[in-house]
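User: Can you predict the 3D structure of 4-oxalomesaconate tautomerase? Sequence below.
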Amino acid sequence: MSAGEEFDAGIRCMLMRGGTSKGAYFLADDLPDDPASRDELILRIMGSPDARQIDGIGGAHPLTSKVAVVSPSTSAEADVDYLFLQVGVDDARVATTQTCGNLLAGVGPFAVERGLVEAHEGETRVRIRLVNTGDDALASFTTRNGSPLYSGSTAIDGVPGTGDPIRIEMLPGARALFPTGNILDRIDGHEVTLIDNGMPIALMRAQPLGISGQESPLELESDPTLTAAVERIRRAAGQAMGLGDVSDQTVPKVILVSEPQHGGAISTRAFIPARVHTSLGVLMAASVAAAVQIPGTAADAVAQLPGSAQLGIEHPSGILPAEVRVGRDGDGTWWATSTTIRTARKLFDGTVFPRPHSSTPVRSRADKEVQ
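Assistant: Sure. Here are the predicted structure tokens for 4-oxalomesaconate tautomerase:
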């Protein structure tokens, strides 16, 4: 029996929508211990590489080709560990260099569903260690009769319908908010703010790139001059932020900002990195919201502060509310914390069957054949 074949009979899996993303949630004990074997199995489960992911449960888009791996925490300060896997759609790649704040919304309820955390009548709070980044988050959500409550009246832009609110508080970490030590850097002739409040981003104004910042994701993705410029900036930003060669990584994200148009504090378009987010990731919003409140950043000139802790971050599908506090230590070092409200929903719970092993190379032909 070759590596991974013992899992071909099926693996426990829960598909969940977390925030504005969707992904497969697994217990770590149900997957191979070896990262390479685990990633090979995940690719077969999700149906990658294939632009349609037709032979797996992936949704043919980076926002729906995600995996959360959850286990009891190895840290005495947390309840569970959450490892995020970004699965390539039309390439055989599983990335662990970033985390996902949207799938994070489903981790607490999933931990209760799988019995890793005991539910309390009324509200359950789960402290989560984000394995990819080392950060800690506190998720609070409603539980009744030992189970998470998914139905409710809270709406989030980018998701139809409503759900029960999940409050996610990112706790203060040890990483520098500004990895280069600068509020503003110059990259490829552009002023860029390199900031990490849970997600490393390169934030810059849209107008110097020859766009308004109000274009649709498809318009931005279809502009080869723009996408090439964004990728040059992203790779240089990765080096400057100490991330090394990021050509094969999904971080940092490049976020273009412009004046708000719909009552928010700022408007955004996020490259993730090649596709443009149809909404905005939770931790991307937290990093943007921190930059909005600090004088001299690339966001400062176009932002409109509301005078309260909660900021509306505009994106192509609406507005994401982010409650971010910033402060400065005596030595001048900036810090930030963030709280966001998300919803999540269990879509199915059962057994997933990975694509069988193949003796021939896997190729994606979806761009050439449509049946």
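Helices lie at 35-46, 101-113, 217-221, 224-240, 282-292. The first strand starts at residue 11 and ends at 18.
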